[in-house]
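Before our next group meeting I need something from you. Please put the record directly below this note.
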Amino acid sequence: MDKITLDRIKTIHPILRSELEKDYIECNNLLPKGVRLRFAYVYRSVNEQNILFAQRPKVTNAKGGQSIHNYGMAFDIVILKDKDNNGTFETASFDIDEHWMKVVKFFKAKGWAWGGDWTSFKDAPHFEKTFGNTWRTLQNKEMFIDNGLKYPKL
């Protein structure tokens, strides 16, 4: 397992936490030796989102408040590969290969929407579960604080 990912899962919306941790462990165990799943992002603050929005080359169309990450209901993946066969995962891959697609198939089967299916701005690392909400409906919901992070009441 990847401790960084397990720590990041603690920032997902509390309603999704135990489900995502269970799904992560199950999915990670489907990958072969020398390959591991990491969540590159889970919760992102509005400020962090604005920094990404300003980044070039462009990596997102969403300004702060316009990303499902800002509400703790999304995660982005990267595949880590053992570069030297000694258990040190040094190579991060965003290649959409057989390992990537195994992860996609798994999370889609668990009800997560995949950004790679989007038509206008494909976001292959992105998965989200919004319970029918958009960023516009989420930003209008009453919010609560959990572990210092702000989430919408669902």
Summary: The chain has one domain: 3-152.
